[in-house]
Amino acid sequence: MKKIYPKIFSGATAALLFSLAVFFGIYRTALPCVISYSPDSSVSGSGFPGTTIRQTPNGYAYYIADLPIKSAEVVETQRKSVILCGTPFGIKIKSDGVMVVKTADLSPAKNAGIKEGDIIKSVNGEAVRTNSDISRAVQLNSDMTCVVLERSDREMSFQFTPKREEDGLKMGIFVRDSAAGVGTLTFIEPNSKTFGGLGHSISDVTTGETVPLASGEITKAEIFGIVKGKSGNAGELCGLIFPDKETGNIGSNTEVGVFGEYCGEIYGDKYPAAFRQEVRTGEATVLTTIDGNTPKEYSIEIERINLLELEGSKSMVIKITDAELLEKTGGIVRGMSGSPIIQDGKFVGAVTHVLVNDPTRGYAIFAENMLNEALE
Q1: pLDDT in tens, 108-151
Q2: What pTM did the predictor assign?
Q3: Per-residue model confidence as pLDDT tens digits over 160-174
Q4: Which CATH architecture is the domain 81-92+181-375 placed in?
C-alpha cells in the first residue's frame, strides 16, 4: 500500500496542474488584448467574469485573485451614446452574385464540383447578379459552360456540359439572388444617422451562409401575430413589411449585424453604451416589440458572459424572466434578433439567437461589438 500512495498523489497532482493549465489557457486566449474605457469610468476593479483589471508598473493586466494572467492595453475613448429602438424593420437585400442553395443529384453542376453556398459571379464570361442572368448566360454555349464562383473567399472556376431539356439547357442547380425578412432595429447614432440591427448577419434560409451584399434597404414594418416558441420548436414574430416606406440603406452585412444610413424619422431614448468589461451577470431588461410597432421593456437575466465569444455575436447567455413576455411568446422568438438590452442605465447588448431546446434562453451580443463595426 505504501508504494501506491506516491503514484496516486503524483497522478492527482498532474491532473490538477493540467486542469489549471487549461483553465488559465482559456482565459489567456479569450480575454481581449485591448480594453476601451472613457474618462467617466474607471478601469481598475472592473473585468470579465472571475477577473479584475489592475494597473501594473508596465501598464495593465488581468488578475484572477492575486495572480496576473495576461497583460492588456488600455485605450481611452469617448463613450458612445445612441438612440435605442427595439422596433421591427423590414429587410430587403440583393446579393453580390447568385448563391447556390441546392444542387440536383447527378446534375452536371454537382458532378463538376459546384456546392451549396457557392456564390456564382459569372457564367460563360457574363457577369451575373440575378437568377435570370444565369439562365440567359447558360444558353450562350451548348457545348460547354464555364462558371466562375467564390467559395470561402476563394475564386474557383468549373467547366461542364449542361443538360439539354425541352425548355432549354440546364445546369441542375437552384439559386437565390435576394433575401427579405423582418428583424429588430437595435440603435441609431443620431449624429451620423448610422443604424445597426439584428446583431448577426443576414443568412440564406436554406444554406445558412451569410448573403454577400450588393445592395439593400430597410423599411417600416409592423408585428401582427406571434407563433409561440416551445422546446424543440423556435417561435416567430409575424411581421408585415411596407416596401413603399423605406427608412434606410444597408451598407454592410456582417457577422455582428447589419449597418447602414438611416433616413427615416428618429425618435426614442438616448443611452450611453457600456464597454464589454462593464457588463455583469444579473438583472437587465430587453426593449422589443411583439405587437404593432411600439417597443416595451421586459425583464431578463444575464446568466453568463461567454468568454469564448467575447468578440462575436454570442457574447452572453440571457434568460427571459418577464411573465408577460413568457406568456405571449414563450421566450425568445425569431424576429426578436436585434432587440437592445439595457442594464444599469446603459445599452449593453442585443438579442441574437434562441436556444431551440429552451426558448426562455438565448444568446446576445455586446453593444461594443456592434458599435465598433458600425462607427469605426
Answers
A1: 999 999 999 899 999 988 898 888 888 888 887 777 889 999 99
A2: 0.86
A3: 888 888 778 888 889
A4: Beta Barrel (2.40)
Instruction: Return the pLDDT at 4.
Output: 55
Calculate the alpha carbon distances from 39 to 211, 275, 367 in Å. 39, 12, 19
Specify the amino acid at residue 108: P
- In the CATH hierarchy, which fold is given to the domain comprising 105-171? Pdz3 Domain (2.30.42)
Which of 269, 247, 241 is CA-nearest to residue 260? 247
Checking if the pLDDT of 1 tops 60, the result is: no
Closest by CA to 256, choosing from 315, 340, 200, 183, is: 200
Statement: residue 341 has pLDDT above 70: yes
CATH 2.40.10.120 placement within the chain: 81-92+181-375
Q: Cβ(139)–Cβ(203) under 8 Å? A: no
Q: What percent of the chain has pLDDT over 90?
A: 51
Nearest to 242 by CA among 222, 223, 265: 222
Active site members? 200, 322, 337
Task: Provide the grid cell at 13.
Answer: 497532482
Q: Which part of the chain has CATH 2.30.42.10? A: 105-171
